[in-house]
Amino acid sequence: MTELFASPNTYIQGPGELFKSAGYIEKYGKKVLLLSDPTVLKIVGNDFNDYLQNNGFDVTLAQFEGEASESEINRVTEIGKSNQDQIIIGLGGGKTADSAKAIADNLDIAAMIAPTIASTDAPCSRLSVIYTDDGAFDHYRFYKKNPEIVLLDTKVIAGGPVHLLISGIADALATNVEATDVRAANADNMLGAKQTIVAGAIGQACEDNLFEYADLAIAANKAHVATPALDHVVEANTLLSGLGFESGGLAAAHAIHNGFTALTGDIHHLTHGEKVAYGTLVELILDGSDHARFEKFLKFDLKLGLPTTLADLHLSSASDEDLMKVATQACDENDTMKCMPTDITPEDVFAAIKAVDEYSKDFQNQ
């Protein structure tokens, strides 16, 4: 039995670290491909571009067009190829990070991921979630290595939108739930091997820190200040969840998130983490979690304003046929539902989706 654990070469977190990063970057070369979207460029990207140029880097700026699709990845790959860039820096959110990793793989160059929000566990992993140009889940893409550098400037993150930090908390809260079920199933993690002891410990530490520090971290984010509580949650959302999901594995929660891509409509105005939050509650039903554990997660989600009913997902008018489409997509043989401890059918998922909705409504009406 092979156990496997993976991580980025270097993880850096702290206030102002983005503008102290030249020494880390220059180890991989002076020709930089900077990938960032127009909003992030206005907030911090243009200043970072100036910082790099003032420190002797030859920077090629590529504006990210918003979707981690093969066509966007190939477009930016050609830019990097023509300029013979040596390292790509993905500055922005999760789809920017996933695209940067794919481009680095295409070009066989180093990658630095610099999240400007702590909304996703994508930065640390050696995989990307690839979508169609229309935003539907397409496939997971796996790489031979993790990013060389992951850098989180908590001063930048403290100034970001609060609802995106909450979305990251929701995404990270699935980490231990899924890793626990993968371990119970003796299934493979996202590296195609079994969990190490440290992967399980990371998953538990991620969950513990989120329940302990989320409220104080959200308060810090609202005040746009970096505090120890925000540090704990940023690390949980990014490093602990990133290492935890990759080396611990994914199961029902993310498969159900992917199942929601079978539908069109307002659900897709929600963030990745908001949809994963509902998937986590569904997974707790599917794995037979006890009442106390389920309610702990439900109360936490309600306190943070996360979706716990179909109405919250903008699916109040969804038919049973629609929900079966979600359930069927979630059980696709290429997704991670197969990593649950018992065989899960689309009918099981459909029932659990409905049960979460009814339980939450009843709980809130008490």
From TrEMBL:
It catalyses: glycerol + NAD(+) = dihydroxyacetone + NADH + H(+). Pfam families: Fe-ADH (PF00465). Keywords: Metal-binding, NAD, Oxidoreductase, Zinc. Residues 8-154 form the Alcohol dehydrogenase iron-type/glycerol dehydrogenase GldA domain. One of its GO terms (molecular function) is metal ion binding. Signal peptide: none annotated. Glycerol binds at D121, D171, H254, H272. GO terms for cellular component: cytosol. Its EC number is 1.1.1.6. Its cofactor is Zn(2+). PROSITE patterns: ADH_IRON_1, ADH_IRON_2. NAD(+) binds at D37, G94, K95, T96, A97, D98, T116, I117, A118, S119, S125, L127, Y131. It comes from the Bacteria. Gene3D superfamilies: 3.40.50.1970, Dehydroquinate synthase-like - alpha domain. Pathway: Polyol metabolism; glycerol fermentation; glycerone phosphate from glycerol (oxidative route): step 1/2. Coiled coil: none annotated. InterPro entries: ADH_Fe/GldA, ADH_Fe_CS, Glycerol_DH. Binds 1 zinc ion per subunit. Belongs to the iron-containing alcohol dehydrogenase family. This is Glycerol dehydrogenase. It comes from Lentilactobacillus buchneri subsp. silagei CD034. The lineage of its organism: Bacteria, Bacillati, Bacillota, Bacilli, Lactobacillales. The gene is gldA.
